Amino acid sequence: MASNTTVVDIHTHMYPPSYVEILQSRTAIPLVRSFPQAPDPRLILLQAEAEALDDALRDPAAKPPGRPLTSHYTSLDQKIRFMDTHRIDVSVISLANPWLDFLDASQSGAFGRSVNAEFSDMCGRHPGRLFFFGTLPLTAPLETVRGSIGQLKHLKYCRGVILGTSGLGKGLDDPDLLPIFEAVAAARLTVFLHPHYGLPNDVWGPRAAEYGHVLPLALGFPMETTIAVTRMYLAGVFDKVRDLRMILAHSGGTLPFLAGRIESCILHDGQLVREAKVGRGRRTVWDVLKEQVYLDAVIYSDVGLKAAIDASGADRLMFGTDHPFFPPLTTDEQGEWESVGLNAAAVAKAVGEGSVEAKACMGLNAVRILGLREKP
């Protein structure tokens, strides 16, 4: 990455030690488990890994599922070292999936406050270099969630909230979620929408286990985001909460590519026509993409980025690394990561290396959109 370019990473995760302790205590996915055949504990997040987990627990010779839980997931010093190695000036860190979605209502409120305080403290140790997206205890009562939003609004380094597609458990078009969207928008916090649940395992077919994580991560995650945001659009959420602003992970899934097809299906749907949901003055999917949605640049190719730019605009695209996921498999993790280089190269190829648009996508958009200056 060019030394004269401000680089901001808005898609970068951490699991605080207290969060890892909860995962270690669990017996159902998501969990952290140690295996005699693996040097590091394994982070197991996806239901698609359940069968492999059972096999590894029964057979010490079986390959354990999940990802090695290295210090890149939990160490603040490691995060800063990663930033320095890749010449990243500012990172907006967030708790990675599945956030607090699996916690009981009696636990999530207090633990959410604790996690957000931990992230705030991390940012305070590196002022100006770190900001964060807070975590909402969505399994807790509405007043508890609103209280969490109020807390985040007043934390110096908080710039938004990270949210999964499950919402309160019924998706992001759930009417019960509307007061939370309204509260987030009123607090001027941006929603960073990130997938976790993917698609049902049987979608991938009987041989899916032979293909590692490729199908659920490469295809399931982007489709999950696309479906969630399309449902929000169809339910009128963006019209009901016009001040809501969302950053979509992984360049919006397949939304930039499929927006035209979604529009065509809406216009030709007899049910929507009969119910007068299609008519004059309707804001299209394209309008929402250009007015209320931002996209990260975590898509690893200029082909995908060009679609994202055409759909939303180069002034609405922000660089990300998805650290600590997608580490190098054949080289030292303390060196440069190929996945980071792929994203940076894609930006340069899509808009021109060193161009005004490249500098905007690599950092200046994030500084402007998220207000990445220390609050007084």
UniProtKB/TrEMBL annotation:
<dbReference type="GO" id="GO:0019748">
    <property type="term" value="P:secondary metabolic process"/>
</dbReference>
<dbReference type="InterPro" id="IPR006680">
    <property type="entry name" value="Amidohydro-rel"/>
</dbReference>
<dbReference type="GO" id="GO:0016787">
    <property type="term" value="F:hydrolase activity"/>
</dbReference>
<comment type="similarity">
    <text>Belongs to the metallo-dependent hydrolases superfamily.</text>
</comment>
<keyword id="KW-0210">Decarboxylase</keyword>
<dbReference type="InterPro" id="IPR032466">
    <property type="entry name" value="Metal_Hydrolase"/>
</dbReference>
<dbReference type="GO" id="GO:0016831">
    <property type="term" value="F:carboxy-lyase activity"/>
</dbReference>
<dbReference type="InterPro" id="IPR032465">
    <property type="entry name" value="ACMSD"/>
</dbReference>
<protein>
    <submittedName>
        <fullName>2-amino-3-carboxymuconate-6-semialdehyde decarboxylase</fullName>
    </submittedName>
</protein>
<dbReference type="GO" id="GO:0005829">
    <property type="term" value="C:cytosol"/>
</dbReference>
<dbReference type="Pfam" id="PF04909">
    <property type="entry name" value="Amidohydro_2"/>
</dbReference>
<keyword id="KW-0456">Lyase</keyword>
<feature type="domain" description="Amidohydrolase-related">
    <location>
        <begin position="8"/>
        <end position="372"/>
    </location>
</feature>
